[in-house]
Amino acid sequence: MTADPTSKAHPIDAAPVDPSRIDAAMAVCLPRAPAGLAVACSGGADSMALALLLKDWAAARSIPFRTYTVDHGLRPEAAEEAASVCHRLGVLGIRADVLRGESERAIGAGGDIQARARELRYRLLLDRCRADGVEALAFAHHLEDQAETFLLRLARGSGVDGLSAMMPAREWAGVRLIRPLLAMPKSALTAHLRAAGVAWVEDPSNRDTRFDRVRVRQARAALDALGLTPERLAGTARRMARARAALEGDCDALLTEASRDHETGYITVAIAPLRDASEEVGLRALARLVCRVGGRVHPPRLDRLERLRDALLDGTLGRGRTLAGTVVSSHGADHILVRRELATVREDAPLAPEVLWDGRFSLHFPVGAMGTASAYRIGALGLDGWRYLRRVDRAAGRRGEALPGTIRPTLPALWRGEELAHAPHLQPDGPLIEEAPRVERLSFAGPRS
Predict the structure, then answer these.
(1) Measured at the alpha carbon of residue 211, what is the angle toward residues 47 and 359, in degrees to the nearest 5?
(2) I need a surface site. Which of 224, 227, 335, 406 has the fewest CB within 10 A?
(3) 314 known member of a binding site
(4) Is residue 47 annotated as involved in ligand binding?
(5) In Å, how far from its chain's centre is CA 283?
């Protein structure tokens, strides 16, 4: 990535962002002042501008403020780039930290690496927010990003939810994810940086036509000529969001009636209410169920949800259909079971006082146990771990927890190297390794919307 503060790609006649616009946007995003605020900052113009704007906003309200830069570990030069971003933020008086992922273990090879990297990014950010007491995390998506998202989802045949594009705010695992720049054009952000004398970096991937978003961006002039301006497209997205909000109430009522969360991370759902619901509300409910059990922020594509609903209604689910990291299968004559797909659980997490593992489970450990934390990791129990635990229970004359067999391997476990230390859901009396840190609290915390 290269510094390019005078790029001709960005108009120079726009005015900097007026603080009153940020005040109004933050009032929409945050119903109350958060205990801590952070910006996810890549070093690009958008996130650098947001960091500057929210630094002043937070200071005026005595709210602790910082930024996080994620290094996925996907490129050799990424670590140096992330360090450079943090240095430049530090010069501006902004606290900055690098969050690092391990690409091979956490992301895996093959398939949609971008999508898995995005999920990893969210998990790294959420874990750090929770550890630092940050209640609100801001992203720098702006007006043109919103318009591009609308067009990309239109091209995929998205429904009401997809065409609502990005929402200004949502909750996940105790952190409020906010996007206060959705109504602001990129030109205002670059103008703000120029006025402040702040440089930014240009990511070469933003010009790589292999990506759909880049091709949409390059068609901007032709779209504008047809009246499909960013302002009009984003306005349509806002109207779709109003329709979405109306449907959400019906979906809430349906899930309250039909579904039951289980503390071990799966959900059982009565088929009859799903069958009786309107198609739109039924699809919305399935999307929520899959996201919650799969620990994902972004719902699966609508056409895949439609195929899942068709299979549910015509009785052809059988032993299960996979979707977005979950398996949806029949459960008795009149229910379905939504569970995590073991093959897609890749994440190992280091110990911390509070950890959101796999986007699904919130684990709390005593602060005093962190002295030995580096020796342990949190990962899936897995088939081998479950078989070992079953042998231990049988030898001790204990009966295992009554759970569907497919659930146990997907549960979180504490490991010391390759040695199983504790499976907290299945070992309420304590760990196998006596000196292992004990879990103080454990809850199913997948996204609810």
Answers:
(1) 60
(2) 227
(3) no
(4) yes
(5) 20
Helix (H, G, I), strand (E, B) or coil at 80: helix
Extract the tokens encoding 155.
Answer: 């091209």
Residues 6+ apart with CB under 8 A from 395: none
The verdict on whether residue 108 carries a ligand-binding annotation is no
Give the total residue count for the chain.
449
Asked if residue 43 belongs to a known ligand binding site, the reply is: yes
CATH code of the domain made up of 262-343: 3.30.465
Alpha helices for 92-142 (secondary structure H): 113-132
CATH topology of domain 2-237: Rossmann fold (3.40.50)
Domains of the chain, residue spans: 2-237, 262-343, 345-444
According to DSSP, the β-strands at 321-323 and 326-331 are antiparallel
Q: Is 259 annotated as a binding-site member?
A: no
- Residue 62 assigned ligand-binding role: no
Amino acid occupying residue 143:
L
Q: Which mean pLDDT values do the consecutive 10-residue runs of the chain (449 residues) have?
A: 45 79 97 96 96 98 97 77 92 94 52 67 88 96 96 91 93 91 96 95 76 87 93 96 93 96 96 95 96 90 94 89 95 94 88 89 89 91 92 74 86 94 89 90 82
Burial (0-12, 13-18, 19+ Cβ within 10 Å), 375: middle
Instruction: Please report where in the chains the tokens 């990005």 appear, as a residue.
Output: 166
